[in-house]
Every structure is written in structure tokens, then in C-alpha cells.
Amino acid sequence: MTNAGTSRRRSIGAQRNPESQQAILKAAEAILMEDGLAGFSIEAVARRAHAGKPTIYRWWPSRAALLLDVYHHQKHVERVPDTGSLETDIIAFLTALFGYWRDGNAGAIFRSVIAEAQTDVKATDALRAYVLDRFSQSAEFVRRAQARGEAADWVSPELAIELLAGFAWNRLLTSRLDDNPEELQRLARQISLGLKG
Amino acid sequence: MTNAGTSRRRSIGAQRNPESQQAILKAAEAILMEDGLAGFSIEAVARRAHAGKPTIYRWWPSRAALLLDVYHHQKHVERVPDTGSLETDIIAFLTALFGYWRDGNAGAIFRSVIAEAQTDVKATDALRAYVLDRFSQSAEFVRRAQARGEAADWVSPELAIELLAGFAWNRLLTSRLDDNPEELQRLARQISLGLKG
Amino acid sequence: MTNAGTSRRRSIGAQRNPESQQAILKAAEAILMEDGLAGFSIEAVARRAHAGKPTIYRWWPSRAALLLDVYHHQKHVERVPDTGSLETDIIAFLTALFGYWRDGNAGAIFRSVIAEAQTDVKATDALRAYVLDRFSQSAEFVRRAQARGEAADWVSPELAIELLAGFAWNRLLTSRLDDNPEELQRLARQISLGLKG
Amino acid sequence: MTNAGTSRRRSIGAQRNPESQQAILKAAEAILMEDGLAGFSIEAVARRAHAGKPTIYRWWPSRAALLLDVYHHQKHVERVPDTGSLETDIIAFLTALFGYWRDGNAGAIFRSVIAEAQTDVKATDALRAYVLDRFSQSAEFVRRAQARGEAADWVSPELAIELLAGFAWNRLLTSRLDDNPEELQRLARQISLGLKG
DNA sequence: AGATAAGCGAGACGGTACGTCACGTCTTCAC
DNA sequence: GTGAAGACGTGACGTACCGTCTCGCTTATCT
């Protein structure tokens, strides 16, 4: 930080000031972490970041946009496990996702993004695009299982991931992220072998 | 309606006036249906119901409480299919749920409840209790399949339902309720037979 | 004051709270007195009066309306002198007006009202109506002079007052209110006798 | 205009660019004419003149300074009538002034200057200096009347002009510039002969 | 039967946040 | 160093809701 404490942040000419951008994202993240979505307002972010509201609105057209940007700036979890076996891949996938959401702020932030998407159409669209992209990435480990002959040809890798992700969303959105290893094992077994066993 | 148009609603003494209660719930539902969660405010409900704000606050302590009450007053879909076969039961379950959410207002209202639950802890608790109850009810058709020998003994009916419900939630929350029958069939097959086929 | 310091001002039901009204007018007056028109904002008045902005906007549709109201709540100067002689009446009229504007806040407030009237059409209309009314009231002493035979029949009392008032406005608006008794005497003489002497 | 439309205005080295200066003054005048003082902002002038804000602030330290400059660049009316008679000189003086203010933009601009002078002390000083200078110039026709023996020796030409100007200001500031010839005649008669006739 | 108590619509209250506008300052880059 | 350009922090704008309060009323229930 070049400006550490001594002087205020200023314009650096007719171009975006990355210090302001960082300060705003950090403030937004901190507020979400501390007070949740309820305390998250443009005004509060501006106050905490020592930024002007117009500066925020200049670069993020809405609360939802800022929220999504905060989420995207989170460190990402590896979502394509590769343990060599479908069943353990499933367990690894869910364990990593639950841990990611549980340990840092990512869970609280993602809950906020989902909530926002129920109000703001742009947020809905952005969230849909995001999850579809994620699903197709994560589906890779199922595709690998198919290549290994471990999964049937007729299964849809995306649909399989959607099933796992839907399960995880439900747990997240109802505050039930405490992962039970046996439960996950059972789930992985159910999914890989099917209800019919 | 006893008071049809001619006179205003009044107190009926030191007791809750059911007409007011009904008017408020109807107004709340109409607003959610027409404008979604974004337009849903106590102020707007009071305006539309020709009710005083204190009347609303007297009986519903928060926005979330009113929202949940609206949802509970919706007609419920039958969630325990019984077609005689596990695979068609799964299809029937999801088809009914998607249709229920898509056709009436129930989808918009449930999305609102979920969103509210991300902000309001009481709403989270209420939602969690609600879904756990629902899951255990719906799990009945999986239990029946087990009884028929159509599903393995070691599978958890609740977990199975949670998988289906999670899938449905994800579709609802990202506005992807347009149900594709083939997709549902494939999903049902995946779940019943497992990825390994 | 019934609420002296101990408790906050509250709603007294579905009716205007006169305490709030008074607090707002006093705050507005104090701000004008201390900081002039430059510091006069609805926000500042609300802050000082411990009132909500919507409360101000509820009762005064604009800055101009509040400004005029503040001016109208000033103590009024007697503008119809009656010394028995036209010339001394003129001197008394101007002396009183200058003194009124100079001594209290009235001058600063009236300057603000005039300035506002150059921006806001409603304020222009209100100011015009106000001055025309004032002129016709003040014209009384000229009418009395006519009745006494001290002024010619063909003179217009209103026009005469407008001449005096215009002179006073000019002095007020250019910060030249320091009254010079000899100058006023000369002016009174000029007006009563005419330039031709 | 040398640069008509084809290219942007640029620096012409370490000296003031008169094209920019002209463009800014023209833009300021046009805005005052079209939207009045309410629409007059440095931002709006910069936008309309395709000028940078710092360019404006470099040469005019405040809104008031720009306003006064715009006023000074107006074509001036001849304010020293010479009809040979005091009474018709008075009528000519007022008719010319009213016409000047009414016909072009000058009235709107001068109103703005006066309003600004109620907020900005520098503008007050500049306005006072300006009007005192004007008064002494215009007083010339009264002095001539004195030289002709048409006005008494003891009258103050400046005071007489101040009376006329004050009358005119009042009309300008309350949007009553519609000149009534008979009224002006009566006024001229009152002033020249005096109220006592 | 009269008093009491609570519910009702209404709407004002002090607040907070909204999204926009203009302020005056600052920096960049072309000339 | 001047020019256009435009980002910056600041703060006011006028509006929407928040949750609380009091009003004036209506009516069932309890003396």
C-alpha cells in the first residue's frame, strides 16, 4: 500500500483508481462477514471504505453487481477432484465445497448472492450464468469416470453435478453445513450405485 | 364477504378481526405475485389491504413472519406420489413440484421465503423446520419402494428426497423451472440406477 | 415547553405535531442567521431540529416555502408611520425598515427570500404577492397625507411606496444598510418636493 | 470560429486559449438564458462548452465570478438619456432599462448576479462597486437638468438615480417588468414635481 | 348498564438508505 | 503550462420504508 494511512485516497486522473476499487471490495466483504446481508448497503460500504457513493455506483451498477464481484474475488476452491474413484471424488467434491463455505466468508457471501438473485433480475441472470459455468467445469470428474468406464455412458455429467450442487445449496440455505462424513459417504454410495443398489 | 364495498373495516371489539387478517394475507400474496419480493413491504401491504401498519405488526412480528404465513396459506401440492414404480414416482414428484411452483404464485412466494431466510434468523429456523418436515413426509414413497424391495435397504429415504429437493431448489432459485420431461426421465434413471448404471 | 430535554419528540397521532413545526422553524432561522443562505439546506435544518427530512418535506414542499415561512414568522415592524407630516413619515418609514433589517435576522432572511425567488418560480410568485400586499398597506400614510391635503391628488400612493421600498431593497441587496440620517432627510425632501424643488 | 466542428479545442501552449474562454462564456450565457440560475452550474457550463472543469476554475475562481463576467460581456444599454427635458429623460431611462432587461437575456443574467450576491461576499462587493459606478454615470442626466436649471441645486443626482434604479430592481426581482407607459409617466411626474405637486 | 380494554384505520414521527447531481480537487496525456 | 477528460471524496437532493406512537372510533367482555 503506497498510501498507508498518511494521506487520503484521491483521483489519479481520468481513470479508475485501483486502490479505491480494492478498498470498496474489502469493505463490502467485511460488512457481509460481520453483519450479513442485512447490514449490507451501498451507504455502509461507502462509509467503511471511505469512498463516495458515486464512486461505487460508477463501477457497480447495483448492490447485486457489487455482491457478485465480492463473491468472485473470493479465493476459489478446487472443484474438480481427482482421487481416481468416482465415489471418493463425490465425497471430495462435497467435502471441499462444504468446507469452503463453512470456513471463510464464502458461504455467507454466496447465501447473500442467492438471496439477492431472488429480488434482482440481473442478479438472477448473473447467478444462473455463473452456476451453469461452474457445473460444466465440475462435471469434468464425472466425465473422467465415464472415460475410465466407471460411470455409464448414458448419464449426464452436468445433471449429476447439479444433483450434488443442489444438495449442497439446500444445506447452505438452511444453515445445515455441519458435514457428517458418514452421511456424505452414504450419499456418494447412493449416487454412484443408485437407489436400487 | 360481509362488508362488501359498502363500509370500511372496523374493530369488532377487543379481538382479532378475521376480515383484516384475510385482507392482509390476500394483499401480501397479490403483491408477491405481481411485483415479487422487491415490491413486498409492510407499507405496501398495509396500503393495499386498507389496513393500518400497527395492525400488521400486532399479528406478524416481522416481514419474514408474514411471508411464511402467506406461504403456509397456499394450497399444497401432493408430494407423496404412488405410481407403483420408483422411477415414475421420482418423475411424478418432480413434475408435481415444478408445476406447483411454476403455475401459481407458490414459486415466487417460496423464493421469497428462501431469500428472507438468508437475512432473518427466525426465518432460517422456520424454513429449516419446514423443509425437514416436508422431507420426512415425502420420503414416504422411497420407503414404500424399499418395502416393495425396489430400493436397497441401506439407502436413506430422507437423503434421497433431499437430493431431489435440492435439485428442484436450484432450478427454482436460478429461474430454470421449465421442465424438460426427457431430462427428468434421465434424472430419475440416474437416481434409481446410479451413475454406475 | 412540555418536553424539555427529557424525551424525544414523537408523533401525536395522525395530525401535525406543533412542537416539530416550531423546532424546524427555529432551526431554520438559526441557520440562516449564523451561516446565511449558503448553509441553509433541508438536511442541515433536519439535523439541527432533530427532525426527519420527510417531516420537513411533508409540510413545506420546497426550500423556498420553508424560507418564506421563516420570514413570515419574524416579528413585524410597523410600516405605517403617522408623525403628522409627510416628510417625517417618509423618514420614519425608511428608518424603521432599515433598523428592522439591520438589527435582527430579518434582513439576512429577507435577502435569502429574494435570492431564492430568482431561482424558484413559486418563491417568485409568493414574494410578489407578499410585496404587493405590503405596498398597499404601507401606502396608507401617503393616503393620509393626501387626505390632509399635503400630497397632490394625482399621485399614486402605491407607486410612491414602491419608490421608497425599491430604494431600501437596493441598499439591502448591496449591503449598504448603514443609515445616514442626513441622506434620508435629503431623500425625503426630494421625494416630497420633487427634483424641481 | 476557426475550429468549426472538425477538431477538439486544444492547448495553444503556455497561454490562455481565447477560443476556450469564448466558448465558456457563450455556454454560460446560453444556459442562463434557457434554464435560468437554477440550471447554471460549473458542471453544466463545462459540458456545454466542451471544456474541462479545471479550465473554468483556472480562470474564474467561483460561480459568481463567471456570472459577473457573463453580465459584463453583455451589450450595454445607453443609460444616459438626453431628451432635453428632465421628465422625458426619466421616462427614457426607465423605458430603456426595462426594455434591455426584458428583451434579451440581460434581465435573467442580472437577476442571477443579484441572487448570487446574497450568498457570495465577493459577488456582493463586485455588485456594489458595479452599481455605484453605474449610478454615478447615469446621474449625468440629472446633473444636466441641474445645469439647465430644471432641477434644484440641493438635490443629489446619485440619490435620484438610486430611487429610479431601486424601483427598477424591485420590478425585475419580482418579475414585473411589463412596462406600463402611463405608470412610467406618472412616476416621472411624481419624481420631478414631488408628491406635494 | 356502564366502564374498560383491546382492536381498528389512519397517518405523523425520527430515522436510514436509496440513486443522482454538483461541488472543487486531482491526475493523465496530448499539444 | 494549457487544454479536455474524467475519477475522486463530499454532501445535499427528494423519496420510500422502517418500526413506533397517538388519535378517534368501535365493539365485546367484565364488573
From TrEMBL, chains A, B, C, D:
The keyword DNA-binding applies. It comes from the Bacteria. Keywords: DNA-binding, Transcription, Transcription regulation. Residues 1-20 are annotated as: Disordered. Residues 41-60 bind DNA. Residues 18-78 form the HTH tetR-type domain. InterPro entries: Homeodomain-like_sf, HTH-type_TetR-like_transc_reg, HTH_TetR, Tet_transcr_reg_TetR-rel_C_sf, TetR_C. This is TetR family transcriptional regulator.
